[in-house]
Amino acid sequence: MMNLLTEAAPAGAAGGGMMLMLVYILIIGGAMYFFAIRPQKKEQKRMAALLASMEVGDVVVTTSGFYGIVISIQDDDCIVEFGNNKNCRIPMRKAAIAEVEKQSEAVEAAPEKTENKKEK
């Protein structure tokens, strides 16, 4: 019975099927690179640049959603002050910071908010 199956298929057809499968695998691999791997690397570079440019006095949002002000920066750690209470200073990893708003941007945004309140 096995002989009948191997004799029925020509020898060149099996090689063509393997080439077509290899082409499909390459296309799927390329799509995975452009849709998943490349954007992730781009986001990692953006976050690394954001954390490297972080300075004392910047307003940050942690991954848990807390807003705070950076008061000290070491290599991989930073100390963030939360709320109006000056005693609430928590050391944390830089990786736990999700967003950074520069001190100059925060100062510029504040007058715009007060101007909008005066107009009302």
How would you explain this protein's 3D organization?
The protein is α+β, with helices and mostly antiparallel strands. It folds into two domains: about 50 residues; about 60 residues, SH3 type barrels (Roll), CATH 2.30.30. The protein contains three helices and five strands; from the N terminus they run ααβββββα. The chain has a five-stranded antiparallel β-sheet with strand order 4-3-2-1-5. The mean pLDDT is about 80.
**Tally of contiguous helical segments:** 3
Q: Globular, elongated, flat, extended or rod-shaped: what is the shape?
A: rod-shaped
Biggest sheet architecture: 5 strands, antiparallel
Mean pLDDT: 81
**Share of β-strand residues:** 15-25%
Integer-rounded radius of gyration = 28 Å
Supply the CATH architecture of the largest domain: Roll
| Top-tier CATH class of the largest domain | Mainly Beta
Could you tell me how far the N terminus lies from the C terminus, measured between alpha carbons in angstroms? Answer: 89 Å
Q: Structural class of the helix and strand makeup?
A: alpha+beta
Number of domains: 2
Total strand segments: 5
Helix content: 55-70%
CATH topology of the largest domain: SH3 type barrels
